[in-house]
Amino acid sequence: MLVVGCGPAGGELARGLARHQLDVLLVDRLPDLRRAAFSSAALPIGAIEQFGLPAELVASRWNGWQLHGPAGGRWRWQAERPLGGVLDFGALRQWLAAECVGWGGALRLGTQALACAPDQERMVTRLRQADGRSLEVTSDWVVDASGQQRSLIGEPAADADPLVCGLGAEWLMEVPLSTWQAWSERLSFFLGSDWMPQGYGWVFPMQPGRLKLGVCRLESEKPGSGPGASALGPWMERLLQRCGLEEARVIDRHGGRIRSSVGRRDRHRRGRLLALGDGISTANLLGGEGIRHAMTSGRLLVDPLREALAGSPARLNSYPARLRQELGWRWGLSGRLARRTWLGLVDQRADRRLERLLRGLHQTSRAEDLSALLFDYRFERYGLKALPYLLGWR
How remote is the C-alpha of 366 from its chain's centroid? Predict the structure, then answer.
């Protein structure tokens, strides 16, 4: 079994297969899994427990939300118990890889998958190593967990559901402990076209004395279009200044891109080549997080792949339906809501609509309810009051 990509999806799948004593080779193009560690990496407490993530991966825990609105308004929600954690994303990738190796799997870093092709009842994949040399790997199945690059499974068909592209940038910063405490125990988001048109900004606490600040912008993808990473620089600087963090020492800069179909009907399989995670658009575009759903897609694929290796490949046919069932009908709706919410956030009219939504949420909800909305899409907890605003009806 060859798994291409040691992100949350590929890493979770590889460790699950290795745990069942299957022969697994996990490869990743990065020579160091701590590099290019772009992810806001906020998870609800239930997901941390569900996947058995150890405490050393959790940089900080949070029990509240702080939302900064378009007109300078600020709203806070605080719970008495922890609601989630902010992960060290690089450490998560390293841990998943170590788990795979610990259960008997093999790991090859600095290795890029170039192409794969069927060879009778097996697959041959051409890889390029860090030194430029090529090698071929023959396996029963290949899993493309390369993320939005879709390195092997390829791009969706031209007439398929259009992709929404999100470009993000993030800085890891060192700050005085007193500054860190002012941002600790809560997730802070900055919403409105004056903070980031068609997107949002954030400040999350990491380990004591460290914060991460980021912005993300979404737009409909057209061939050859879309913002470059440099386009986010001025917005990052502006957010830094408006948050009073100009004196922070930036110790790491990274960014990334996500491309996800709104209808979530991506191709999951082509012969003995499978895809999962961001490659099949599992990300939560509304709440801006992808780790949970990526790991879910990897975990759900373990048993069907085991059965396929044992001679029952037809069991893989039900995987897309099982994944949709596991993530729920609200997950599908969230893609459309995300497109309407973020892509429409471009002017004062949209800002006023957002302002009304934030005021309404603050009057009627608790911190737990906000978590349920953004992580679990539980719109009914508000009596569906949020939907007219998100859909632009008010």
Answer: 25
CA gap 392, 394 in Å, rounded = 5
Query: Do residues 93 and 378 make contact, with C-beta atoms less than 8 angstroms apart?
Result: no
Please give the sequence-ordered ranges of beta strands (E in DSSP) within the chain, or none if there are none: 2-4, 25-28, 42-44, 58-62, 64-68, 74-78, 84-87, 106-109, 112-119, 122-128, 134-139, 142-144, 163-174, 187-191, 199-205, 210-220, 249-261, 269-270, 273-275
Instruction: Using CB atoms within 10 Å of the CB of residue 318, give its burial: 0 to 12 exposed, 13 to 18 middle, 19+ buried.
Output: exposed
User: CA Rg, the chain, in Å?
Assistant: 21
User: pLDDT tens digit string along 258-312?
Assistant: 888 877 778 899 999 999 999 998 888 777 778 999 999 999 999 999 999 999 9
Residue 380 domain-assigned (yes or no): no
Q: How many domains does the chain have?
A: 1
pLDDT in tens, 189-220: 999 999 999 999 999 999 999 999 999 998 76
Which residue segment(s) compose the domain that 274 sits in? 2-333
Instruction: Give domain status of residue 388, yes or no.
Output: no
Q: Would strands 187-191 and 249-261 be described as parallel, antiparallel, or unpaired?
A: unpaired
